[in-house]
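Our preliminary data section would be incomplete without showing what the modeling component actually yields. Below, a chain of 481 amino acids is followed by its predicted structure, encoded as tokens that our downstream tools consume directly.
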Amino acid sequence: MTDRRMANDKSSGILSAQPLESPSDDGSLKAIRKPKWYRSTFWNAFILGICNFLAPGIWGAMNSLGGGGQQSPSLVNSANALTFCLMVLTCFFSSVVVRWVGVKWALIIGTLGYCPYAAGLYVNNRYGDGWFVLFGAALCGLSAGIFWSVEAALALAYPEPHNQGRFLGFWLSFRLGGQIVGGAINLGVNVNNNKAGSVSYHVFEAFIALQALAPFAGLLLSPPGKVQRTDGLPVRLSIGNSITYELKAMSKLFFSKQFLLIVPLIAQAVYAESVFFTFQALWFSVRARALGSFLSGVVAVTLGNILGKYLDHTKFSLKSRSRGAFFTILGLQGAWWVWATVLVTEFNKTNPTYDWVDQGFGKGFALFLFWVAGFQLNYMFLYFVVGNLAETQEEVIRICSLLRGTESAVQAVSYGLGSVSVMARTGSIYLNFGLWAISLYPAWLVISKIGVTLGDKKLAREEAVQERVLDNHSPDQQAEK
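Predicted structure:
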């Protein structure tokens, strides 16, 4: 069997970029053809990114306005808590949905609920009717959990091993692209508004139009069986088991030791989203919030892609890459929480509204930029970690669903507490600081094993797929058929 495997670099744990041969239909070996551009992993990363931009990216753009662009963040924090509560449910059942309709159509279904939420914010902003915000948030939650789970599985399963980090960075850049575009639109509309308050309703008209395009973008995604990779291997990303089996497998994986150990790491990372967007809404003018939305996206995209290249850098061992990323990201995160604790304690006493012309603006604004960038780095690192825990391609779907479901549960709590004044102003920051400290040791118990007792699981999954393909095309198998 080994003489028919593709060439690989065992020392780095990464498959080579160009394989030597692949099986043909008659069981012989043939040279790999260059992938068609519209079936390539890069094209699919681009389409996945466009879907991310139009759905959660624009959702993030609205959030990055601070409180969904409203004068008070309490209603939007309550709506987001509802969204994430429902996402916990839909994330858990995502593998069942994939079994019914496949990953492509599950992704398209997942885009459908975002637009009604944007419409709810528009109605509330223009007419003051808050019920539509909650209704839109519910629809968003029912679909977004499926979207989150499926897009994560696609991002881990589609790319070649040597492109995994770059694929993650490229894909997640589009989510922040929504924030950048949204911030630019908002900044253009509100550039003269140096007071606290809500943004113009015209901003939401643009957001609604963009989010309505998301399902159509999903139609351009190649289903797993039609993806063409540079290493010639097929993408296996489907669920063929019964619903009962899937639910049991999901439960078993959630309660596994390794996943439970990273739950605090997930919690400290994603709790922060409501914290820094509420911080922005409370202490900055409308145009300063728009500027923050734009610039923070640029900073986060830049640093996220640097991290992606580092995680793919085969000059360093998998062990070194995982540990280096862990110490850097979590070390910086601790520094941000110390900084934030000092600032909000001061702001709670002085109650400022900072505009970019005000003295003292920079100390809080810079913190917001670093917070958003840190969120992106944490997000990418979480995908890297779970990608090194999944044993099979089927388990990739399950562990991504659990990752996204856990994120949703934490964010439901985060946004729910953010609707309480004392938590919005100071309490959530103190709490998140504590979550960061609690997460360090259990996370280290997992991170320290990556590249040691936990080998390169991406590599192992790819080799398992290749062996199955070669076995299915062997002369003995062909004779049996």
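Residues 1-30 have pLDDT under 50 and may be disordered. The longest helix spans residues 318-350. Preliminary results of this kind motivate Aim 1 of the renewal.
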